[in-house]
Design a protein that fits this description.
The chain is an alpha+beta fold. It has 3 helices and 10 strands; from the N terminus they run H-E-E-E-E-H-E-E-E-H-E-E-E. Helix content is 22%, strand content 30%. Keywords: Signal. This is Polysaccharide export protein. Pfam families: Poly_export (PF02563), SLBB (PF10531).
Length: 179
């Protein structure tokens, strides 16, 4: 019980510092996927600027003048380049486009945790930190029985340890002990 409290307090402190860090994370190679929130800004063009877009399950957004644009599976730079290229010439002479990642998609923690549910992914999130977000282990939790599935519900590992790093969209399930 005291260990769970210590983990929760440490994680709370880490969470406060992570929000400052999250704005500075290198997302150069991160591929967008459904559930991520992005921002698209076109300098001087309010009708082409979107302060918050949730990427739907289709992975496509409907963008003015361009129609359906696939963003899932692409990096922020690739999306920026595609929108810039699509707007250049016919619509704008030299569009200045910026695409930012506002939030990663949620992770889900279930099983023998105090508050199962979806939680915002944060960079460098481990199983232990995810469990702390979910209120810690219950008294019946088996810390040696942790399963991780990816966002498509495919098994990544059924033998996870609390130090394993997780990714956006991961599903963590803590098993129940027999004693």
């Amino acid at each position: 019980m005291i260990n769970n409290l210590k983990v929760c307090l440490c994680f709370l402190l880490l969470t406060l510092t992570t929000h400052v860090y999250a704005a500075q994370i290198d997302t150069t190679h991160y591929q967008l996927s459904p559930g991520d929130k992005i921002q698209i800004k076109v300098y001087g063009e309010d009708n082409l600027t979107f302060n918050e877009l949730l990427i739907p399950e289709s992975g496509q957004i409907n963008y003015p003048y361009l129609g359906s644009v696939t963003v899932a599976g692409k990096t922020l730079t690739q999306v920026k380049d595609e929108i810039t290229h699509g707007l250049k010439g016919d619509y704008l002479l030299d569009p200045k486009v910026m695409v930012n990642l506002l939030n990663f998609k949620q992770i889900y923690v279930g099983g023998e945790v105090r508050r199962p549910g979806g939680y915002e992914y944060q960079p460098n999130l481990s199983v232990e930190k995810a469990v702390a977000l979910a209120g810690g282990f219950t008294d019946r939790a088996d810390t040696d029985d942790i399963t991780i599935k990816d966002a498509n519900n495919k098994l990544k590992t059924d033998d996870a340890n609390i130090n394993m790093e997780i990714e956006p969209g991961d599903i963590i399930v803590v098993g129940q002990s027999f004693f």
